[in-house]
Amino acid sequence: MIKLSHIVKTYDSPAGPVHALKDISLEVARGEIFGIIGLSGAGKSTLIRCINMLERPTSGTVEVDGRDLTAMNNRELRAVRKKIGMIFQHFNLLSSATVYDNVAFPLRLAGTAEDTIRTKVTDLLGLVGLADKAHQYPSQLSGGQKQRVGIARALASDPSVLLCDEATSALDPQTTKAILRLIADINKKLGLTVVVITHEMQVIKDICDKVAVIDKGVIAEQGTVFDIFTEPQQPITREFISVLLSNDLPAAFRGSAVTQEKTPGSLLLLRLTFLGESADDPVLAGMIRKFPDVETTMLFGTLDQIKEMPFGRMIVGLTGPDESVTAALAYLKEKDLKEEVIGYAKRHD
Ligand SMILES: Nc1ncnc2c1ncn2[C@@H]1O[C@H](COP(=O)(O)OP(=O)(O)OP(=O)(O)O)[C@@H](O)[C@H]1O
């Protein structure tokens, strides 16, 4: 539905060329919420602005719904852009216009009849929870309410794609949650394809299906949010995730050498990750029942969510006869979870 192929964007600046994007390729499926995360200056804004051609790529192609935007003239682009809504970090509302007129703005530009506009704006304000604010001005609204106006305005021309450029970065955590929930609801209700750029992994974890990590103009890594969370490959991805997930060993093991060889009195440390149904499944209880001679120590456990999916993480330590520990490990491997052997370690006294 959105296909970026070999996008390069080089800006000219007095100090010389700035290589903002260097050969970026990615695909976003219809109805998906796709996140792009990167540090400041990584190229996120440039990339999202290439999707609706607010920035023309220096080379490469941008396809939306099978149509190549890079091959279009300005008139054709204007028509296609109506199907690509966008919301911004600083909302970009008209301060001298009411909430109603801000949302009506793109419809008036398109020459829509006033009675159609009335119905449409009223419906949209209802959808974003601002039915009672139609006649207020942006200065009378909170940040979250302003972004709701931005979302209603972006939806006015019935887009198939919604681009969110750091849409929650100016908002407090609670308001961020509420706006993300609204974006996820709209994605579900209207089947919109959503692209989100952010520097916060929490945003990715809360609403995205897939994520691309962008670093210095290239994609360092991309995949499903679950895979990226559970098996990050690149140091930059690990850094983003470490803000949310502690991968540290429990205090009782910190500082002790973790070896890959079993030593007398050491525990086999396992990191277990459960997603979805299996997060509530008593897999560990089953293992303990089946292998009573394996002593299982729970060292760390947390239950979280990726999008709406339960996501549990545990670190357990196993000791017992070698063959039973091996069989217990094999039992876990058959179950619907990810297991990672951290190594062997001794508990401090
Ligand atoms: N119009 C421009 N002219 C010259 N250089 C630019 C222009 N716009 C962006 N850049 C440069 O391109 C690089 C990528 O910028 P971009 O704004 O896309 O990054 P970003 O990841 O969105 O960063 P931030 O989160 O800070 O907004 C940066 O080095 C930036 O200085």
Automatic annotation (TrEMBL):
Tell me one GO biological process term: amino acid transport
Q: Which GO terms describe its cellular component?
A: plasma membrane
- State one molecular function term (GO): ATP binding
Do the record's keywords include Transport?
A: yes
List the PROSITE patterns hit by this protein, alphabetically. Answer: ABC_TRANSPORTER_1, ABC_TRANSPORTER_2
| Pfam families for the chain | ABC_tran, NIL
What's in the keyword line of the UniProt record? Amino-acid transport, ATP-binding, Cell membrane, Membrane, Nucleotide-binding, Translocase, Transport
**InterPro entries cross-referenced by the UniProt entry:** AAA+_ATPase, ABC_transporter-like_ATP-bd, ABC_transporter-like_CS, ACT-like_dom_sf, MetN_ABC, MetN_ABC_transporter-like, NIL_domain, P-loop_NTPase
Q: Which family does it belong to?
A: Belongs to the ABC transporter superfamily.
This protein's name: Methionine ABC transporter ATP-binding protein
What is the organism of origin for this protein? Selenomonas bovis
